[in-house]
Automatic annotation (TrEMBL):
Keyword Coiled coil tagged: no
Protein name: Leucine-binding protein domain-containing protein
Biased composition (Basic and acidic residues): 7-24
Keywords on record: Signal
Keyword field contains Ligase: no
Organism: marine metagenome
Lineage: unclassified sequences, metagenomes, ecological metagenomes
InterPro entries in the cross-refs: Leu-bd, Peripla_BP_I, TAT_signal
Segments of this protein annotated with the region Disordered: 1-25
Ranges annotated as spanning the membrane: none
Chain ranges of the Leucine-binding protein domain: 61-301
């Protein structure tokens, strides 16, 4: 007769193993509790940061360092950018803002004709010619509509209630001066944000300093592209967006022979390279390239 009470030796559990299992269970529970606490801390971090930001909202102005060339060869551009920055900060502090629209701020009011379908461009790699222009221009009317009043009250003066303070030293069209001013703005003035530069040369002169101190930096000019940096944000159009439509138009409007005259630094050289690469695709030919120093202002000989 089979004994149902017999215990299989393989299933026998000793007192030591029971103790070990209890200890493992405690360890597992302890590990889970630690994980839960860590997860709770991570999940609550946004709330903590939000609280810090709110606490800082009344702790003084938001400082923006704004380096531009107010003297020297580049001043013709730098002064205009400085005036624009002053106007923008004044409007922000007064609680003014541009009303959003379909194209940029407030939209763009324009009458025009349009095709029934969107254009198709290119059949493959490096082919940028129109394949299909969307058909004949069968429609006409307001292409974009602009509101009557695009400059409105934002309801919030400054940034999160903090006044914006613009600190704008003169870069003097001298990259050594730019580097000194960049260090001063970061280390002494303790700016929250840096907005600076017309030329790519000025940008590259301070970018190593920006990276060293992990400073938030905006470069707002059109440029040659290729900057991948966790601290630097380039907001302007790049070569593909500028060279391709311009060269296409110039070849069609004035003919295929192209003489490239560019500044002898990264923006000029890379723009010339894009022109050289794209011109043959639209029937253009580069007959010569010339690179002039940034300090050069008389182009009579070249012309």
């Amino acid at each position: 007769m089979e004994n149902n009470n017999e215990v299989d030796p393989k299933e026998t559990v000793t007192s030591d193993e029971v103790t070990k299992e209890k200890n493992n269970s405690k360890i597992k529970r302890r590990t889970v509790m630690k994980g839960a606490v860590a997860a709770s801390a991570v999940l609550s971090m946004p709330m903590i940061l939000t609280g810090i930001k709110r606490a800082e909202a009344a702790s003084g102005p938001v400082k923006i360092g704004h380096i531009e060339d107010l003297s020297g060869n580049i001043a013709v551009y730098g002064v205009q950018k400085w005036h624009a920055a002053q106007l923008a900060v004044k409007e922000i502090n007064e609680g003014k803002a541009l009303k959003g629209g379909p194209v940029g701020s407030g939209g763009l009011g324009s009458l025009g004709k349009f095709a029934g379908n969107a254009p198709i461009m290119g059949n493959g790699d490096k082919d940028l010619k129109f394949v299909n222009k969307g058909g004949t221009h069968i429609g006409s009317g307001m292409v974009y509509v602009e509101d009557d009043d695009t400059f409105v009250d934002s309801g919030d003066s400054g940034i999160l209630g903090r006044e914006v303070k613009l600190i704008g030293p003169d870069g003097q069209s001298n990259w050594n001066v730019w580097q000194q001013l960049c260090k001063k703005l970061i280390q002494e003035d303790k700016v929250d944000c840096l907005v600076a530069g017309f030329t790519s040369a000025s940008r590259e002169s301070i970018r190593p300093i920006v990276d060293r101190y992990k400073q938030l930096y905006f470069y707002t000019n059109q440029y040659e592209g290729g900057v991948a940096d966790s601290n630097t944000f380039c907001t302007g159009a790049i070569c593909e967006q500028q060279v391709i439509p311009v060269v296409d138009y110039m070849v069609k409007r004035f003919g295929p022979r192209i003489y490239t005259l560019a500044a002898d630094y990264n923006f000029g050289q890379l723009t010339a390279a894009w022109t050289k690469a794209f011109a043959p695709l639209v029937g253009g030919t580069i007959i010569e390239e010339e690179f002039a120093p940034l300090s050069m202002s008389d182009f009579t000989t070249s012309i």
